[in-house]
Amino acid sequence: MKKIALYLFLSVILLSCEKEHMGDCFTSTGSKTSEYRPSGDFQIIELDDRIDLDIIWDSIPSIKVEAGSGIIDNIITEIKDGQLSIRNENKCNFVRSYKKRMKVTVTGNSFNEITYRGSGEVNCLNTLRPATLKVDCWESSGDLNLDFESTESFLKIHTGPTVITAKGKTNNSILYIGGAGQIRAEGLIAQNGYIVNAHTGIIYSRTINKLEVHLESNGDVYSYGVPNELSITKTGKGNYIQLYR
Question: What is the largest CA-CA distance in the chain?
């Protein structure tokens, strides 16, 4: 009976691995190692899978990968058509220990978009300074901790329970939630704000001049400070809550 169970277990593993990655199913994570990858200018960072990302705003672009020696080769960092794609192409991940987290550190000053589909943690190690910053989260579940100064910014959680925490300054801020996550932007001082809560998530903001809020579902919007001009459109059950601090 034990032999049958072992045979079935191994069969599941082999079937779940694509032919070209068959050996990957029997490769351990290995000891932690790091390597620098070829880099260049890119405008978009796309992050998938359970990979942590550290971002540094600097004039010299670079890419550093930290992972187990047995899996680092399949942590992909590919620049194509102005987009840096970061993903884990290791297979049979369910049989491998990931106590040693995979991390990519990126430096540069030409990017202005982040597309996030992962479950790793994103951190800014200094203040990003793009003229425009766009962040789009799709089916994601990790945390993004952003520090930036920009003319305009777009922080959007389309799907998933991601939490975006933002601090810094921006002239025009657009915040959108279509999922169950949170946007914690009370540390981001915006001169003007446009907010749409279209699901059950929660948005926290801080706006100085003009603030326009659309409550389209059950999620609430919390506003720190008192904007000079306020417009609220409510078509759902969510509420606008004013916090006087």
Answer: 74
Contact status, residue 123 vs residue 143, Cβ threshold 8 Å: no
Band (pLDDT 50/70/90 cuts) for residue 6 is very low
Residue 14: which of 144, 6, 109 has the closest Cα? Answer: 6
CA distance readout (Å), 214 to 44, 115, 119, 194, 205: 28, 24, 28, 8, 13
Distances (CA, A) of 13 to 8, 17, 185: 9, 7, 43
Residues 216 and 111: their CA atoms lie apart, in Å, by 32
As a whole number of angstroms, the distance between CA 231 and CA 210 comes to 8
CA angle 174, 155, 139 (to 5 degrees): 135
Output phi, psi for 243, to 5 deg. -115, 125
pLDDT tens digits, 54-101: 999 999 999 999 999 999 999 999 999 999 999 999 986 554 455 678
User: Any residues with CB less than 8 A from the CB of 36 and at least 6 apart, and which?
Assistant: 62, 63, 64, 65
What are the backbone dihedrals phi and psi of residue 29, each rounded to the nearest 5 degrees, phi first? -60, -40
Distance CA 86, CA 10 (A): 30
Specify burial of residue 241 (Cβ count, 10 A radius: 0-12, 13-18, 19+): exposed
Distance CA 213, CA 186 (A): 15
Please state the pTM of the whole predicted model.
0.88
Structure tokens at 74: 């399949």
pLDDT (0 to 100) of residue 13: 46
Q: Catalogue all structural domains in the chain, each as residue range(s) with its CATH number.
A: 28-111 (2.160.20.120), 115-244 (2.160.20.120)
